[in-house]
Amino acid sequence: MSIGAVLAQLRGDFPDVTISKIRFLEAEGLVRPGRTPSGYRQFAPADVERLRFVLSAQRDHYLPLKVIKEQLDAADAGAEPDAAVPAVPRLPRRLVPLGDPSTAGLPAAADFEPGPDTRLTQEDLLAQAGIDEQALAELCQYGLLRPGPAGFFGPESVLIARTARALTEFGIEPRHLRAFRAAADREVGLLEQIVTPVYRHRDADAKARADELVRELAALSVTLHTLLVKAGIRSVAGD
């Protein structure tokens, strides 16, 4: 099938996938479609399933492309991917177990992906996050939420507010979370230096490459943060 037909098959489960994204994954060696004598791509059903695996591993487990490629290469060689690839930390799709009554209603991180132009009013945010005006004021006071110049909040604000609300169940207040904001700002400044030059390229696939790079760097950053916190807690516990 053509690349357009592949896109049509994937769009139902992966609304954000684009032709540029598929071409990028091909350039990275994660899928290898055949070619017609005139050079047009020809995808087989196995190629579509391979793309589904890659997109699911990115969306649901936040795996970097390098790790996904290692698993695919292991499968191509006839080995069990989990046995052939060193164990890597797989971040859960959900920030906390949904069965936990103290965090009921907290969405999956991968599920909450409004479009890039989504803007929330204060009333929208309060209703969707399940917090009151005082809680919102504290989140803004300590820099965890930042409304834009027009007073609207970005699409991540609901998940940030719900996560902060869940932490209060453990006695962690917004004022305790200022370190998270400061650390995130430092990470953004560091990663910006890597990503911005790619966005400035003028070729058609530059944005897709830059977006993919952002996802890769974010996944690695979150994985490193998780490991450092785990190691620190184990050290304090004396393990």
TrEMBL record:
User: What GO molecular function annotations does the UniProt record carry, in alphabetical order?
Assistant: DNA binding; DNA-binding transcription factor activity
Which PANTHER family does the record match to this protein? HTH MERR-TYPE DOMAIN-CONTAINING PROTEIN, REDOX-CYCLING DRUG-SENSING TRANSCRIPTIONAL ACTIVATOR SOXR
Q: Does the keyword Mitochondrion apply?
A: no
| Pfam families to which the protein is assigned, alphabetical | MerR_1 (PF13411)
| SMART domains assigned | HTH_MERR (SM00422)
Keywords recorded for this protein, A-Z: DNA-binding
Which Gene3D superfamilies does the entry link to? 1.10.1660.10
Q: Does the keyword Cytoplasm apply?
A: no
| UniProt-recorded name of the protein | MerR family transcriptional regulator
Ranges for domain HTH merR-type: 1-74
